[in-house]
Amino acid sequence: MANSSKTISIAGAGIAGLTLAIALAKFGFRVVVAERQDAPSEFGAGLQISPNARRVLDTLGLGDDFAANSFAPDAIDIYPHKRTSPINSVQLGDFATKRYDGVPYAVAHRADLLDCLYRAAKKFANIEIHFGVEEIDATQANGGVSILLKDKNSAPFPVTARAHIGADGVRSETRINLLGGPKPQFTGYVAWRALADIDDVAKHLPMNHTSLFWGPDYHVVLYPLPHQRKVNIALFSRHKHKSIERGAELKLGPNRLSIKENSVLAPILDSLYDQFTPWPLFGVTCEHWYKDNVALIGDAAHAMLPFQAQGAAMGMEDAGLLAVLLAAEPDNAKAFAQYQSLRKPRVDKVQKQSAQNGKIFHMRPPKSWARDLVVARQSPDAQLKRLDWIYKHDPFEGLL
Ligand SMILES: Cc1cc2nc3c(=O)[nH]c(=O)nc-3n(C[C@H](O)[C@H](O)[C@H](O)COP(=O)(O)OP(=O)(O)OC[C@H]3O[C@@H](n4cnc5c(N)ncnc54)[C@H](O)[C@@H]3O)c2cc1C
């Protein structure tokens, strides 16, 4: 029978859960991952993988594999409402790679990142992934956790683990049921996502850049996914809480009218409105990320608005650090306390910055005029300088 002090159970084979599984396996843990879906998830669209997230992949030896299916844009062009050319460009490409000590800022399809993690996890004999798990019964027991994984096709699968980690996303049952934590809250924003044909968008925008459009009560992010011949498009708008609660059909109505005034965006989006899928955005503010032998990582602990493109990045940083702490400290209470105290202040700050970006990106005149004046005058490295505290971070620094 496996040594339970070297076994960790994880709920969720998403980005955070698989990153944690790989990091723990490298330290010699046996890792049992329970995933609700029947197969590795292919949902989602594009993700920006900033240098702090990429550093985690590089440390785990996955950088080259990830690079094969991702793309490093040269810049982020900023277009305020009705502008036909960018007022400023955040320099990325080689400029950012040099700034972050050889670590690039890239974009990828979420399914490609998950595939990279999944293939890496499958190479470890000490990682077991159970798909189609409908229920995870977890009971705290004698310095560990007794787990039963249940699905409709087989007998319950028992796991005796040192700790159980909830990497089960924004609607985390681990957070709500095992930690008595809060339910996710609707943020007031909806993301509308679509993938466009790269050749169509190339007629309007440079396909080696990310384009960011700011408008009254909306913003749009577009970036190329060249190996898929697609462009990821995410349009963010506000939405009333009540209609989300009632499950009313989500409509882009007023934002479509604003976007019509935008002569760069309108022709790109015109033929895509039917393809947009709405994603109401929920956030999680959770004070306690652990209790006894159970802890949370990723969106389960701190789902945030995606306006700084850091949700997955924070989950990957959580995973890297938690693996190191569990390997170094046999007492879960001490390892988890250290984990929360090292991670939470940073995550809170990123969460606040993401919410603040929403207010800035969606400003209306006259506030937007002042915003645009400031941004237009900034030097090309000003935005990166402002965000160094996010991108320079290495969760493994001084620990390995
Ligand atoms: C529009 C949009 C754009 C974004 N852009 C970016 C970006 O550019 N960069 C970035 O870093 N982040 C971005 N994010 C955020 C990012 O997608 C999330 O933060 C990230 O996917 C969270 O990863 P996770 O592993 O914590 O959770 P998830 O990806 O949600 O994974 C959770 C996993 O747990 C499984 N699960 C759920 N419940 C159970 C259960 N009870 N039992 C077993 N398994 C369960 C799920 O099936 C899933 O596989 C964006 C988000 C949105 C909505």
From TrEMBL:
Query: What's the protein here called?
Result: Salicylate 1-monooxygenase
An example molecular function term from Gene Ontology annotations: FAD binding
State the signal peptide span. Answer: none
- Which cofactors, if any, are listed as required? FAD
Report if keyword Oxidoreductase is assigned: yes
- Domain FAD-binding positions: 8-353
- What broad taxonomic lineage does this protein's source fall under? Bacteria, Pseudomonadati, Pseudomonadota, Alphaproteobacteria, Hyphomicrobiales
UniProt keywords, alphabetically: FAD, Flavoprotein, Monooxygenase, Oxidoreductase
